[in-house]
Amino acid sequence: MLNRNNRTGRSLSFTLILAASLGVGCSDENRDAERASDAQTTVAADLNADVPAPGEPEASAEQETVDYREVKWEELIPQEDLEALLNPPAYLATIAEGSDADMFPKEEPLTIDGPASAEEARYQQALQSTKIKPEFDRQQVRIPGFVVPLEFDDDQTITSFLLVPYFGACMHLPPPPPNQVIYANFPEGFQVEFLYDPVYIEGELRTLPEDTERGNAAYSMNVARVSAYEE
To answer: Which residues of the chain have pLDDT under 70?
Structure first.
């Protein structure tokens, strides 16, 4: 059973900033849908952070000896994108929640030659950036996040998913930038009790993009292990 030691993932500090910056566009209707979905987005849990559930394969000796580097989400963003996300245009703070302006932009990223200021254009470009950190390719990493299921069977065993830095992304809240999304493939499968419980995934990170119906990912991973998030 996945342990819910940190229901909101509070130690994912940068993700709070990112989620807040992307919060423009989360209308009352979306928030109502998010609240209503809490009872609908649960899947039966049968995964223990340390002891495999019945029918699940035990970690191989090779997996046990891999030295996974723990990575924070902000490390995956190129510096210029990170600076833009951490310094959003001042006008965003003046937008009233639920107003016509409270909409996540659906158009292509603005260019500096367009109608917006250079600051606004750079910020909107960062919100949709696919730029990656090439030095992370083929690195063995461990990273916490929230699961957005893509493929699962009748028993709700998830075999492919998106890992994202905050709950509700790609479902009820605007998606993170693609360079803040990892497409994860885990053929062995796993089950979670609540999608708002964060997990750790471990495996070899690739700088290979993947487009899915739930969102676009700039990184991919063949997952070796999924475990409960512990602060």
So the answer is: 1-64, 96-116, 171-172
Q: Where are the beta strands (DSSP E) in 153-229?
A: 158-164, 182-190, 199-206, 210-212, 215-217, 219-228
Tens of pLDDT, residues 156-202: 899 999 999 999 877 667 789 999 999 999 999 999 888 889 999 99
Strand partners, 70: 142
Cα–Cα separations (whole angstroms), residue 76 to 10, 22, 149, 225: 19, 18, 22, 20
CA 173 to mean position of chain CA atoms: 11
Q: What are the structure tokens assigned to 142, written together?
A: 């461990």
**CB-count burial class (<10 Å; 0-12, 13-18, 19+) for 212:** middle
Q: Which of 226, 198, 191, 201 is nearest to 43 (CA)?
A: 191
SS3 217: strand
Number of neighbours of residue 43 by Cβ within 10 angstroms: 18
What does pTM read for this prediction? 0.70
**What is the percent of the chain with per-residue pLDDT over 90, rounded to a whole number?**
46
Rounded (10°) angle between helices 79-86 and 13-22: 70
Q: β-strands 182-190, 219-228: how paired?
A: parallel
Q: How far apart are CA 178 and CA 227, in angstroms?
A: 23
Asked whether the beta carbons of 2 and 45 are under 8 A apart, the reply is: yes
